[in-house]
Amino acid sequence: MTETAHFVDGDKELDFTKVRATDGQFGYDVNGLLSTTGNIMLDPGFVNTASCESKITYIDGGQGILRYRGYPIEQLAEHASFLETAYLVLNGELPTAAELETFENGIRRKTLIDERMRDLFRCFPRRSHPMPVLSAGIMALSTFAHTPTSADLDTLDDAAVSLLAKVPTLAAYGYKNSMGQPTLYPDNSLSYIENFIRMSFGFPTEPYEFNDAITRGLEVLLILHADHEQNCSTSTVRMVASSGANLYSAISAGVNALSGPKHGGANQAVVEMLQFIRDSGMTTKEFVEKVKNRESGIKLMGFGHRVYRNYDPRAAIIKKHADKILELHTGRQDLLEIAKELEETALSDDYFKERKLYPNVDFYSGLIYEAMGFPINMFTVLFAIGRLPGWIAQYREQVSTSDKIWRPRQIFTGADERDWVPIDQRG
After folding, report:
1. Could you list the residue range(s) of the whole structural domain that residue 153 is in?
2. Residue 151 reports pLDDT greater than 60
């Protein structure tokens, strides 16, 4: 039986059909509202609006649940590789051993970028921020590839594999450029994660020694970032996809959306907050009191989330890796201790409990990235590498399920019609 919600606007009435979800909130299909009433809904920030139906990721913010294609994030972080997770996010099922081998080999064969693209990095100033460099690099990739369209899914799949293979190379080259260091060719005898680590930190004249804790820690962090429903950057990717733009254009737009401090840059703010607490000499309790008193310039970063009203499940997983990795970088062990103490202080305070402010994925991730050797300006680039499978999957889902271009409406509150006034008569 179809369920509906009845809507009345003066003498106009219509029924909104309830759209059932596998899990989570149901929705109401408000198609027909404009044509029937002449009016639209106002929902700033799309807090109450579902922009699409999706089968990729499920989040229950109240219960602290995150699942990719039905699989709990805890199980994937414990057992899966990043490319295994990427295959799942892209294709809807965990791969067989043969499918995973084919997928990994396809990526391995495409890690090199065209030699002319290496000149692109020489055009950027030394110390350039790696995020705009990454975005530019992805757009440059499109000029070396067949343009994928929604009508050509085979070409789209080829572009997806190419992006998964080449984006870590671009990211490593962007990092090397920012450091003024020579770039390395990929070594395809290595794993996906090892290859990126070596290209980021290795030098042409000496072998690179890997640390298992760092390699697995980075892999887990990328798994945790693989997708996260309709966030700002993912919605950007889907909106660009709705225009018919190619995959490279949509992913580049996603990178730019992610670069904002309210989205991908939050883990940098956490590290800077912890450094401030340490350098100021104040205790975490004193800092928490300043936060509660809303003192100017004092903010508790890495707590709370737009979706989660419980402990972010990704934060709990990251915390397990923090101790192992920060032991390797004693210069940051002090920040880890401050972070743990700050978490304990905040979680035992009624002020934060009543507001359901719990640590999110950014609270520990920045510390771990820095302990691995990455500078702060690379944190969001690492986020982008992890989010790549989700962006691609969301693009594919968008172009295969809808041919409508996204076109949000507005409520106009500006000046009414008025007449031109000559410049000498304006007061």
Report:
1. 70-260+383-401
2. no
